[in-house]
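Cast an eye over this sequence plus tokens and walk me through the fold:

***
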Amino acid sequence: MNSLRTTIARTSSRVAHKIQKRQMGAGAAQPQWTGIDKVIRDRFPEDYQVAGLIIGGYATLFTLVSLKPSKAKEEPVVVSKPAADVVGAIPSVEDESFADFIENEGNLQKWIDSAE
């Protein structure tokens, strides 16, 4: 059993030295940009800056679209009801035209008579 342990220990120590380290591509040359990429990369050379520019552009576009009204709102047409006169029917107490109805003494007397 001891010989197995020593063999595993020697083998594992040799394997540990043979592991290759990753260098994360540090030796690559910068690409030569052309067209619109060149214009953008002249002002924003780092990748995180370009990513921030793209995200900011989409956020601005989304904000402008959400602030824009979808269609013109049409104002509802207000239809006024004619005030009741002496000959007409008695409006409800909750109706807006009731105040105009009882200003006329004939209408007021008609309303009092209808309550009796």
